[in-house]
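Protocol step 4 of 6: record predicted structures for both targets in the notebook before any analysis. Target 1:
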Amino acid sequence: MSILISLLPVIIFLLVLNSLDTFKLLRPAIIFSAILWGSICALLAYPINTYFFSVFDEYIVIGFTAPFVEEFLKFTFVALLFYKNKLGFLADALIIGFASGTGFSIIENIFYLNQINSHNLMLWAIRGLGTAIMHGTATAISAVITQNLISKREIVKSGYLVLGLAIGFLIHAVFNNFFLSPLFQTVLQISILPLIVIQIFTKSEKSLRNWMEEQSSSEFELLRMIKKGDFKSTRAGKYILSIKSRFTPEVILDMLAYIQLNIELSIKAKGILLMKEAGFEPEKEEEIKSMLNELDFLSKSIGKTGMRTLSPIIRLSGKDIWKLNLLK
């Protein structure tokens, strides 16, 4: 019974989080990778914390150094996904952050089950519903705060990551310092957390729908004009004409092909999002794979200078890279 109480709650909560995600944008492999990384972090944190116990007072380690070490390790996988533009919205960040914390808490609680020979169900309930959920929550909140900052500027900055990590560390440190009784902290946490989760998912879905609506109309119109042969009359077409003298005719043709292909892929990505929202899992299309390969070929052919020149027409950061990653 102690094994179930200490391990199951955090796993169940992660499954619930994933089920609440309407769009299901995260591949299972990424979620499992986050859990695996969290498990590795627990193994890495043990010798580090053991060393600190030999150097600092026990209260300093429990209240400050251990929370920092553990949150830093858990957050590294999330930070990597941000830099690779694999996370697009708050719900994604929430799930991945909690998954990393889940992996950590599972290994930590298995360790305590082997070390503490106790059948006190209250102890294991506090570890399962309190400490384990805290590990997931702290990293999840770090990820959500970082994602929110990135979304506002459409760029990943180290300062955003540091701020997100600092909040996660603060949550963990407050929990470990026992300003409230462990039982009261556990009850408070499991009472407030569902409300926070609902707010995050609501805001994430609203942000996703707004983003789709803002881009879709302009993309469809621009693609229609390109296919009609009226691209020159659009603002994008006039911009290309204005830079025509700076590049060879071959590069200009590649730029035009890149713009059209990028828009077509963007529309396909939004189609996938709509299918996911409706509960369908879209099948992999060979055509999309070849289009992505062609897009990559065209970007290399255009060159870094040419791609920077296209930035007023084709945005190359944030959610715009994320939506292409969605197709891979």
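Target 2:
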Amino acid sequence: MANIQIVETSLRDGNQSLWAALGIDTAKTLTIAPVMDRVGFKAIDFTTSTHMGVAVRYKKEDPWERIRLMAKATPNTPLQFLSTGFRFISWETASPEFMKLAFLTLVKNGIRRFALADPMNNADSNIVCARTLKQVGGEYVIAALVFTLTPIDDDERYVERARKLAASPDIDALYIKDPGGLLSPARACTLIPAVKAVIGDKPLELHSHCTIGLGELVYMDAPNWGVGTVQCASGAASDGISNPPSERVVANLRELGHQVDVDDQALAEVVRFFTRLAEAEGLAVGRPQAFDAAYFHHQLPGGMTGTMRRHLAESGLAHRERAVIEELGRVREELGWPIVMTPFSQMLLSQAVINITRKERYEVVSDEVIRYALGRFGKPNLPIAPEVMDRIDSMPRTRELRHQPDMPPVAELRRRIGRELGDEEFLLRATMPAEQVDAMKAAGPAPRTYNPETAPVMQLLRHLAARRDITRLSVEKPGFRLQLNGSPARSKTTA
């Protein structure tokens, strides 16, 4: 029987899948950090450049500060950064020089483990990224074989990628990344042994989702085929469209005879925290999902489903979710079967929404889809449908983007943005609107503690404080009385 390790994913993938990447902030992160460090996780799946952008845009928090504080609070557990190709925050392809600076700054701030998931499953691109990471001090690099279902992605194709990745001295391990929860036990029993056979002594991990009820089943068999680590979320941040639940996976693996060396008491505390957090903040709670064969058509990953629902709600299109999902499947096939993962999942979703809200499909095509069609992200898996490619080629915007220059050198960007800026602020301002970075800086340091027990009370107080028709508020309990008046000078607390 195998000794299985766990990578904890609640702060990154669970948060993104179930809470649209908005459920976690710095205070919540730091509150649970010491407990997570005691569990004995192999690593904590912590952040991506997209999550860093969310921290600035929606939380007005410095993502670099969050990384530093979390790294300090978890000295025994490596923090993982997920990189999806040559891009950092922005959807546009970044230069190797810019990515090297981003990777170096992440290392300096405490990221020790890097997961590389190229959206085109391009092994050569992953190898280049891995070499860069090792040059800047990256401690551990794990390269992904992103699982997808297309007419051409058979086991043999994955084996060839795995063989190439394993041959790189800069790649420490491989993992099968199944963002859509599409990997069935039947497919896993041929794919995983075939991959394991060609990667030698390099460890193999597995990352899946519970979206249609397959992920947890595959986790139970995976150790028999050579997988040494599985990636799980905890409590309310698990299950549903998120990752398999850590506590249940650990218990079931042990029942099957495998060894999982974690501190059960600390793990239970992590589980309770994320469940209490969801209850206090009114966040979705992951539930076991029924099998849905229709899902194989669009393959929308768990991490993108929550984001999709947020975007549709913000646009007043929540009632069109089913139509958007069906259109997404059509768009994916027409665009040559891109893997439904960042950044392509966002591109496909955007184009699907445009198609169902316009009189004619592809009446408008997003810049990102045009860049994809022009090969800015690499060669599509299969040729784009001729009628769609003809439509894109005929657009004036396509002619503009075809001649758009590549990202300028870092020195030129510094000249434009501000030579006096430190690397952290420079990287944010080079990839985000200036007003969003300004708002983050004006907000000051983020709070560092969070108590889910008091969260509902604090939300009520903030709501009441925003009302103009209330001039006095009194909070009372035995031995304590808090009275808030319209003027701060008149407020008083008695005990």
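Step 5 preliminary note on target 2. The two ends are 60 Å apart (CA to CA). Residues 455-494 form one domain.
Proceed to step 6 after PI sign-off.
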